[in-house]
Backbone:
């Protein structure tokens, strides 16, 4: 029997994969056998190199995520370069840190547009292509610990990531019978650009580490296995789940 965790010959579209968690996910999917289309505004040269070093094809779709007009060309371009999309990873995200009393509309809108609106409309675009072609597919959203908790000073981020968790369940309800698995990964506290301010704050860093049973920040390489699982045949009967990869944070 073939390895159910292999995704040889599949094409994966990964947003925000030039660094950090997105890069780790893209490279892990490549090592599992997928060709990778990387979506984002910054040149993902290092990611493309790592994917090709794994023996897979890679293509950069340059796009500014947020608005529907910017999303529309992504799937056609990626499909033309690599073939029809089998796997979508909605990883791109942004954050604004301000007290709720001082939060601005601009800080609200930019985060919601990237973290939630683009997740829905890019998922819709991929799902429409899958349904049209009569193919199965996998969609993996990136949620957060703040899909479960409130946090502080990140009103739009918490709202968007709570929305991602709910949207994941809704899309699973609508698309499971069409052969499309929609799930999410909720990373814990990882050492990425988004958490740089927290790690630089000695008090918050100490408090966070004290809460994590694994007693360390996650490394980007810690998340790849979860993505490969959800993208593979091994997860064919997994729908609407939000898988925490958090060093035990939610268990404490």
Residues:
């Amino acid at each position: 029997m073939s390895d159910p965790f292999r995704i040889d010959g599949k094409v994966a579209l990964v947003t925000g994969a030039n660094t950090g968690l997105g890069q780790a996910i893209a490279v892990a999917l490549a090592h599992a056998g997928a060709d990778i289309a990387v979506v984002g505004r910054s040149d993902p040269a290092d990611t493309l190199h790592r994917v090709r070093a794994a023996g897979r094809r890679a293509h950069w779709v340059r796009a500014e995520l947020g608005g529907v007009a910017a999303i529309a060309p992504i799937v056609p371009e990626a499909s033309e370069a690599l073939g029809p999309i089998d796997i979508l990873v909605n990883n791109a995200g942004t954050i604004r840190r301000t007290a709720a009393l001082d939060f601005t509309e601009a800080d609200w809108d930019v985060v919601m547009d990237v973290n939630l609106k683009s997740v829905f409309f890019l998922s819709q675009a991929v799902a429409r292509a899958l349904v049209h072609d009569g193919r199965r597919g996998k969609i993996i959203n990136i949620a957060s610990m703040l899909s479960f908790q409130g946090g502080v000073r990140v009103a739009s981020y918490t709202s968007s990531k709570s929305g991602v968790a709910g949207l994941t369940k809704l899309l699973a309800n609508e698309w499971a019978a069409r052969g499309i698995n929609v799930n999410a990964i909720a990373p814990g506290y990882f050492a990425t650009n988004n958490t740089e301010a927290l790690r630089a704050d000695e008090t918050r860093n100490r408090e966070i580490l004290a809460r994590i049973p694994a007693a360390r920040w996650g490394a980007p390489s810690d998340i790849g296995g979860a993505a490969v699982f959800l993208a593979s045949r091994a997860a064919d009967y997994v729908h609407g789940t939000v898988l925490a990869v958090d060093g035990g944070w939610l268990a404490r």
Summary: The longest strand covers residues 180-187. Residues 116 and 163 are 7 Å apart (CA to CA).
